[in-house]
Amino acid sequence: MEHGIVKAGTRxxxxxxxxxGEALMGDKGYGLDPAVVERIANEIKSVHDLGIxxxxxxxxxxxxxxxxxxxxxxERTSAxxxxxxxTVMNALxxxxxxxxxxxxxxxxxxxxxxxxxxxxxxxRAVRHMEKGRIVIFAAGTGNPFFTTDTAAALRAVxxxxxxxxxxxxxDGVYGADPKFTPDAERFETLSxxxxxxxxxxxxxxxxxALARDNKLPILVFSIHTPGAFSDVVSGRxxxxxxx
Length: 243
Fold this sequence. Notes:
Elements lengths: L13 E6 L14 H15 L4 E6 L7 H6 L4 H25 L4 E5 L8 E2 L2 H9 L3 E5 L9 H11 L4 E6 L4 E2 L11 E2 L1 E2 L1 H6 L7 H9 L4 E5 L5 H6 L6 E3 L1
Helix pairs in contact: 1-3, 5-7
């Protein structure tokens, strides 16, 4: 499958960037921090300017968490659909900021909402990227019981991406949360089986298994480090490779 054209000085021709909804919150306890969204959009634009084809999946945990709502008494299927709608809100916000910075962007939703987005059509999404547009995939897989991690792995495989990049709060994969365990072991490289057998909380097991079965490398880095996204696609900086 086509992986995009690898430009000089970069390692990948086409990548999918997975962001959590919490990455857009900044110091707020809920919702979006416009300054943070603007900064992340600039990071994405800088990679786009390198000639790399980019697609995004953004979670919705800053607005609504399906699992938490299900635990509070909302039926799980309904809670998951509500979480998918939250991802559409984040996708539209990111689209707006990217386009205000001159980057043509399309939102494709797995739940059809013709007024605000395109339906998810694989060939159309590929064509958008070939034309230099960024594509944001919203509403997860369109099915309950699947996380946006799984949606990211699925879309990355469908798009023929050379890598799945997960922008997190820390600069790679650790054996424990470094916020609470300062001496936690940090990994430079891991196999898919290491992640699954050690139950490392990088992505959910179905996402890791899907990446493994399709030989899709996962690169984990800090989205809050200025220039880190550009560094990773150029093979520099601090990140963990799962593959």
